Amino acid sequence: MEELLIGQKAPDFELPASNGKTVRLSQYAGNAVVLYFYPKDNTAGCTLEAREFRDLYDQFVQKKAVILGVSRDSVQSHERFAAKQGLPFLLLSDRDGAVCNAYQVLKEKTLYGKKSIGIERSTFIIDPEGNIQQIYRKVKSAGHAAAVLQALQQR
Q1: Are 111 and 80 in contact (CB under 8 A)?
Q2: One-character DSSP codes across 124-143
Q3: Which of 54, 56, 89, 144 allows an S-S link to 67, with CB 3.0 to 4.6 Å?
Q4: Residue 26: helix, strand or coil by DSSP?
Q5: In whole numbers, what is the pLDDT of the chain averaged over residues?
Q6: What is the arithmetic mean of pLDDT over 103-131?
Q7: How would you class 68 by CB atoms within 10 Å of its CB: exposed for 0-12, middle for 13-18, buried for 19 or more?
Q8: Is this model's pTM higher than 0.85 or not?
Q9: Between 44-55 and 75-85, two packed helices, what is the crossing angle to 10 degrees?
Q10: Burial class (CB within 10 angstroms; exposed 0-12, middle 13-18, buried 19+) of 1
Q11: Mean pLDDT, residues 112-124
Q12: What average pLDDT does the segment 123-138 reach?
């Protein structure tokens, strides 16, 4: 699989969302999309990242940007996490990892000496025409939402 590059068309997808509906990336044509991939609901880093996007949500809306969070957790887990954190944006469930694979965010990780495949925290800014405008890999949670917002303000 070729590496995703800035300027190329973002892979379209369809996933179940935390609002009980199915979401297609292409339904957001005409808006910028902040597509962020995170490892797991209710973990420290993922909660921090979600809260930062939540706290800046109105500023993203002013920039005509849609925020979508993606992990391999279930829709039910996403519903609980979104409710607990008061998230105003959708979380998408990629149980089989197909979208994670399309965006090349599944990586080998080692935790306590045990290897596994998991999501490497990554964010993609997709422009209103559906092209990848920015790619962030190996994201650190703290301050990331503000950096993404700043990138949107510069376009």
Answers
A1: no
A2: EEE-TTSBEEEEE-S--STT
A3: 89
A4: helix
A5: 94
A6: 90
A7: buried
A8: yes
A9: 60
A10: exposed
A11: 89
A12: 96
